[in-house]
Q: What sequence folds into this?
C-alpha cells in the first residue's frame, strides 16, 4: 500500500483546522486561571462558559448539565462519585464530558499548561460551586421574546468574542449579523477566500442563533465591488451574474444556518449622495439579484440597508426605486445630528412613528445604537434612557418594526477605532467618540447601565407573553 491511513483516534485524534485556529488565538491572550475569581480570570471563565453552551446545544441538554474533566479516567471517577454523592445538588444531574489528552513531547506539555484557559480541568469546579446565579460572569439567561426578533452586533472589546457573545446570548438575542464585503471575499474572479461564513455555520446553528447576512457591493460611502468588475455597470449582465455566483458560494458555506434576512449593501444612501446618477442602475441590479436570492432562500427577507436619515432625506424619493423591489425596509438608526452629537432620547418615539409610516412593508432596524461618550454630549445615563425609549417605542410599533439589531456589545479598543476612523475618513473628535463608546459594555466587559436595561427590558417582555 502506497499510502498510510491513520485510525488510532483513541490515542490521538487529528486536530480540526477550525479548532487549531481557535486554540492559537486563545494562546495569544493574557488570561488567568478560570477557576479563580479575580479580574484576570473572568475572560477565561467566559470562554469555558461559551464552550459549555456550545456543547449543550450540540448534544441537546442544558448547559448546567455539562461538567468538563481532563480525561476519561477522571470522567469515570466523577460518574461514580455522582452516585456516591447523589444527595449533593452540585452532582445530582451533571453530564460528564471527558477530554483525554496524551502528551508525548515537552512542546505539547507547554501547550497543555495554556489549555487550562479553556477550562478542560476539574479545578473549574471550585469556580462553578462558588458562583451564585447573580455572580455568573455572563449573566443568567433572561429568555427570548416571541413577538419580535432581537439581535446584537457582537464586538469583543478586550474580553474576547466568546465572552461578548455569551453575554449577548444571555441577554435574549435571537440573531447576529454577518457582514461580507464583496471585494474582500472575491479577490479574483470566482476565487472566494473568506472563512467567516463557514465558521458561522459551525457555531451559530448549535447555539440556536439565526443570521442576517449583509452582502455589500457598497459599504456606507465605499464602493466594494471587486477590481476585476470595476469596468462594468451596476446592471450589466457581468456584474449581476458575478454577484449571484458570490451569493451561491456564500449560501453553500452555510448549509445548517437559519438565514432570516439578506441585505444587498450597507447604508447605500451615503454612497448615492455623492453618486445620485447611479441609483436607477443599482435598483435594476438589486431587482435581479434579489429575485435570485429569493429563489434560493424563499423564507428570508431580501432588502437593501439604508440610514434612517438618508431614507427620509432629499434622496428618499429616488431610493424608493430600490425599496420597491425589497421584502422589507432595512434601516440603520443612530439618533445623532450632523456633528455626531446625540439627540435627546425623547425623540426616539417620533422617529419610530416615522419609520413605521415609511412603507406598507415590514421595517427591519438592522443597526441601532447610542454612544455614551462626553464628546458626543452624551453619558451612560443618556445611553440607558435611549434603550428604555427604544423598547417602549418598539412596543407601539411591534407589528410593523419586527426586528431590531443593537450596536454594539463592547466598546472598541483604540486600535480598532483608529482603523475605522481611517476607513470612514472622518476626523471629528465626536465621530471618534461615537465609534468608541457605542458599546453597552465597556471594552473590558463591565456592564454600562444600558446593558442592564436591555436585559431587564427583554425579561419584562418575556414575562408578559
A:
Amino acid at each position: 500500500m502506497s499510502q498510510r491511513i491513520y485510525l488510532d483516534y483513541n490515542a490521538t485524534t487529528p486536530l480540526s483546522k477550525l479548532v487549531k485556529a481557535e486554540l492559537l488565538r486563545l494562546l495569544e491572550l493574557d488570561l488567568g486561571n478560570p477557576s479563580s475569581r479575580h479580574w484576570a480570570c473572568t475572560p477565561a471563565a467566559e470562554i469555558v462558559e461559551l464552550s459549555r453552551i456550545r456543547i449543550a446545544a450540540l448534544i441537546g441538554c442544558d448547559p448546567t448539565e455539562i461538567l468538563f474533566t481532563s480525561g476519561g479516567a477522571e470522567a469515570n471517577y466523577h460518574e461514580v462519585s455522582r452516585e456516591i454523592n447523589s444527595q449533593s445538588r452540585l452532582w445530582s444531574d451533571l453530564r460528564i464530558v471527558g477530554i483525554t489528552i496524551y502528551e508525548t513531547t515537552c512542546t505539547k506539555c507547554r501547550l497543555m499548561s495554556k489549555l487550562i484557559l479553556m477550562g478542560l480541568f476539574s479545578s473549574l469546579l471550585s469556580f462553578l460551586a462558588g458562583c451564585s446565579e447573580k455572580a455568573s460572569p455572563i449573566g443568567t439567561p433572561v429568555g427570548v421574546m416571541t413577538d419580535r426578533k432581537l439581535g446584537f452586533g457582537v464586538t469583543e472589546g478586550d474580553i474576547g468574542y466568546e465572552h461578548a457573545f455569551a453575554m449577548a446570548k444571555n441577554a435574549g438575542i435571537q440573531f447576529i449579523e454577518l457582514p461580507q464585503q464583496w471585494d474582500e471575499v472575491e479577490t479574483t474572479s470566482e476565487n472566494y477566500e473568506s472563512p467567516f461564513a463557514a465558521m458561522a455555520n459551525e457555531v451559530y446553528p448549535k447555539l440556536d442563533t439565526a443570521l442576517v447576512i449583509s452582502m455589500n457591493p457598497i459599504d456606507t460611502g465605499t464602493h466594494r465591488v471587486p477590481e476585476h468588475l470595476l469596468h462594468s455597470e451596476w446592471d450589466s449582465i457581468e456584474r449581476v451574474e458575478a454577484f449571484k455566483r458570490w451569493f451561491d458560494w456564500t449560501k453553500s458555506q452555510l448549509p445548517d444556518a437559519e438565514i432570516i434576512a439578506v441585505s444587498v449593501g450597507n447604508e447605500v444612501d451615503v454612497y448615492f449622495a455623492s453618486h445620485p446618477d447611479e441609483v436607477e442602475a443599482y435598483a435594476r441590479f438589486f431587482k435581479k439579484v434579489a429575485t435570485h436570492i429569493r429563489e434560493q432562500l424563499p423564507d428570508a427577507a431580501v432588502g437593501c440597508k439604508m440610514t434612517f436619515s438618508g431614507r427620509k432625506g432629499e434622496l428618499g424619493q429616488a431610493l424608493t426605486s430600490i425599496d420597491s423591489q425589497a421584502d422589507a425596509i432595512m434601516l440603520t438608526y443612530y439618533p445623532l445630528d450632523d456633528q455626531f452629537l446625540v439627540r435627546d432620547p425623547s425623540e426616539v418615539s417620533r422617529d419610530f412613528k416615522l419609520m413605521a409610516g415609511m412603507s406598507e412593508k415590514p421595517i427591519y432596524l438592522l443597526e441601532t445604537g447610542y454612544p455614551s461618550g462626553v464628546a458626543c454630549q452624551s453619558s451612560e445615563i443618556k445611553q440607558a434612557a435611549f434603550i428604555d425609549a427604544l423598547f417602549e417605542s418598539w412596543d407601539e410599533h411591534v407589528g410593523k418594526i419586527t426586528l431590531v439589531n443593537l450596536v454594539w456589545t463592547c466598546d472598541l479598543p483604540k486600535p480598532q477605532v483608529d482603523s475605522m476612523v481611517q476607513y470612514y475618513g472622518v476626523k471629528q473628535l465626536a465621530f471618534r467618540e461615537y465609534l468608541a463608546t457605542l458599546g453597552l459594555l465597556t471594552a473590558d466587559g463591565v456592564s454600562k447601565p444600558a446593558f442592564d436595561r436591555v436585559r431587564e427590558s427583554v425579561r419584562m417582555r418575556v414575562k408578559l407573553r
